[in-house]
Amino acid sequence: MLMQQQRNIKRTRRMFARTLASAKVPLLFHTSKVTPTQTLVRPFEALFSTHIVDEKPILVRDFIHSALYHPIHGYFSQRSRSVGVLQKSIKFNHLEGRKAYMRYLDDVYKKSDISWFTPVELFKPWYAHGIAEAIMRTANFSVPLKIYEIGGGSGICAKGIMDYIKLNAPDKVYNNMTYISVEISPSLAEIQRETVGHSHLSKFRVECRDAADRSGWGDVEHQPCWVIMLEVLDNLPHDLVYSENQVSPWMEVWVKRQHDRETLSELYKPLQDSLISRCVEIMDIDKTHTPQGGVMVKAKSILSKFYPKPRRCWLPTGCLKLLEVLHGVLPKMSLIASDFSYLPDVKIPGERAPLVSTKKDGSSTDYGSYLDAEGNADIFFPTDFWLLERIDHYCSGWLKLPKDHSSKQAKKRRTIMLDTSYFMEEFGLPSKTRTKDGYNPLLDDFKNTKFYLSVPTHNTQ
Question: Binning pLDDT at 50, 70 and 90, where does residue 140 land?
Fold first, then answer.
């Protein structure tokens, strides 16, 4: 039964993995040079729809974006009912314990022709209420409350947050608030309108567009606002860099179609893409963090001759692009993001590698190569929250890279990373998701998920 539940819940199929070490909640809410090398082709091959890769090679991030979001062939277009909607909230207090909860989920999935239920759906309305409480403790109510949600799924988060604010905030806060969902999927956008529109029609709207596209945002908004991203980072396109051994320079990975027109392979080129180069510099993946750097480089050089070890590193370039856009158009935004901090049993090689999984007839299959994705597979990545913080600070102007000689004044941000259990204990109502014997799936089962919160400060030093 445990394995069945792990196969049912999207991305939390390994939800019962070992608990990460945690710290107490701080009182945040109270008061290189690359040498060009010869282009290579490696035998990472897979059959794939020729609609994704044309005659010209494309970067890995473009391949992943098409595999997930292509309007016809993409995963989220073909699986319009991939995000499940529960007909009614789960009454956790009526369940005896873990086994009863698992049986309930198993029964729900068998009756539903969908791929997954998100945490905000499984724990509605309590999950959204916790997020709303975090916003209310920090929001500046001297200006109208404005919330953007990126990738709103079924709309249940928006509805839960607005319901909570209507019941618990001063009337003027709800009466003057605006909630905007930025959703790339037309089918999910329509579901959101149906979910939220009946209750909060005058406060809520959906903008069906790509949030990472700057042209869709219009003028810069200088008022404070909130941005919510739940399970968005894991589905953002990533790039891949490759190195032949421990000392060889990093190279960009491109995807090309072979001469048979059905087989795909990887193509390696010297670093030249600006987004990849910025991400590599932010990550600082080529720096030797030791006072004996020269000695270490020589040792690695000798080792690479006798024991060459290819290196593959996945870069969150989609996250970098999105945060660059958001900080540019919403300079006073506060951010709440939730996602998976690690994904056990990943078959695909490389640091921060994704899971590529498809579900058919109730059973899931994980692929060994991202090139196996044919528009019928979800591609999702773990979030490196330390790197997310660096990208956030870089995009806000606080983190300066060595090559950045601009005199633009930086705006410091206060950030915090919390395990989901700590976030919900601090801001939510854990008693509402507890079963009769004390088992609490919201606190106990999502050990590989975290919340990231980032708010602007007035400090500029």
Answer: confident
